């Protein structure tokens, strides 16, 4: 493959740049900041693109090389491959997925859209391998990349064996190792086989636990079965005893049952007495209905009486108003004077009444404490006589005196109290009579005052009021008649409305007696089990025929003992069954566990065999790879050493390259090998340049050659080394196209003198 031309529409600071290249040695010269590294990056991104733009410019070439004027980043590369001419066009987007990449066959004029990493197909290697082989920067070899190194080693080893590049020992080994680690991890916990072994162990433990639990459940069920059988036998015995105990209860209840039947007879008699002709039974509810009806009738009567009294007053006023001789100012003044005198007398009587009442309250009996103290002293004196006769007698005498004083005072005060009570009663009667007279006289005064102040309109109003009251009285009389009819309907023909007043209290007493009998009957029925009266009579007969009375107390004690034993055994059985139920709820199915264990055992056995096969394959592959590495390793060492010797004028006679492309060298005039870290930077660059050229030569030995891209790879060489290296590169370019970028004019001039095509970036 050879690159014929490069066109950059816009990329970083470079815009509208075209570079035409020959088939051999090309040198592009440009001073610093003129874009030589930019052009190198453009070539790489044209073939491989780059990841999405990131904030870190060092890790985001897409962002780093975005045109400064925000124009579209784009360009093309014309190249020849296998005798055919192509053009690769790329319009860059935000990421590989948004790039528009087109491959044009310029011989045929056909176009096709290709993937963003078209370089993998065109150059036969990944971007990482590209950077470690034909894309040569200023500072030796890039950082370690196991994937890229494995890819290059694969190409070398496969070429050494078959000349093909389709297989990779490293990739195969990694796949085998990955497959093994997926099953059996290094920690022994993360692999699928490891997890299955752990699961198998857990399943076996669960099965053991399930079997133990099942054994306990079986034992528990047998124990519960035995207890239930014992409970049934005990219950049978208890039932037999209960029959005998029930006879005792009937025997003891016989008297209650006799009382029940007696009360039933009394209830029937009193109910018959309280039953009306229409069949209605007078009871508490019925009496409440009568009381309610009577209260409504009395209410209506009260309204009628109030209206009649009001009419009486109105008529009296009208009589006075219509007869001026009965109502005069003189008569009014006379009544006012009389009322005033009566009120003064009333005030004196009230004062006298209050004084008498106050005197009565002050004549209370002496405090009871005198009597209590006298009793205590009397008892105390009697007790002290056993110790000192004189002291005891003295204390008892004082107690007797207290009691005597209490008795004398009580008698005297009782006589005075009776006199005051009589006086107070007379005063109260006199006050009531006086109040009646005052009220009457005030009513007469109001009538005269009304008559004196009346006019024709007021008289007419009073007359209308009399008529309205008359209508209301008629309505209330009708209502009273209706209520009386309702009362008679309740009473039927047994009583009438006049008789009910005299017999209502008697009916209430009978109804109360009826209620009391019913309560007694209910209490007895509750005790004997709410049986019917017929059953009660039957049980009385049975009780009378019991004959010999058995030892019911002993039988009851035995019965209670059996019930306690039944309760205890039921508790035990319930506890066992509850424990069994709880165990069955959490217990795993042993048969299901066995099936899982069998399936997992079969699976782990297959995985174990597969792991052994993988170990064997990895061992064989490692041994085989070692043989292959030895075969192509010597070729790479020899070719790199040959180039290194050429560009160092034979100063170093041998060179060794490791699998990860670390280099050790040996001088021609001394013993021992050296790592590159011990050598000058110029010698290091010479060694890595030799390695790159050797790699490129070996990789492309059996196929189309690839162009070699160098970015100031000779910058650290002195003048002599530069010329020797350039001479070698000129010779190397006869088989492989070389495109070198440099900012050193002397390198460009020397290359031009050696026949290289040189161009200057503007």
**Which residues sit in consecutive blocks of at least 5 with pLDDT less than 50?**
157-167, 364-368, 385-390
Helicity range: 55-70%
The major sheet is characterized as:
6 strands, antiparallel
Spatial strand sequence of the major β-sheet: 2-1-4-5-6-7
- N- and C-termini, Cα separation: 28 Å
SS strand fraction: 5-15%
In round numbers, the mean pLDDT is 79
- For the secondary structure, the number of strands is 14
Rg, Å, rounded: 67 Å
Describe the structure.
The structure is a single chain. By secondary structure, the protein is α/β, with parallel strands linked by helices. Helix content is 67%, strand content 10%. It is built from 19 helices and 14 strands. Strand 12 (708-711), helix 18 (719-732) and strand 13 form a beta-alpha-beta unit. Residues 157-167, 364-368 and 385-390 have low confidence and may be disordered.
Sum this structure up briefly.
Helix content is 67%, strand content 10%. The chain is an alpha/beta fold and 762 residues long.
Tag the structure with descriptive keywords:
single chain, 762 residues, six-stranded antiparallel β-sheet, five-stranded parallel β-sheet, 19 helices, 14 strands, 67% helix, elongated
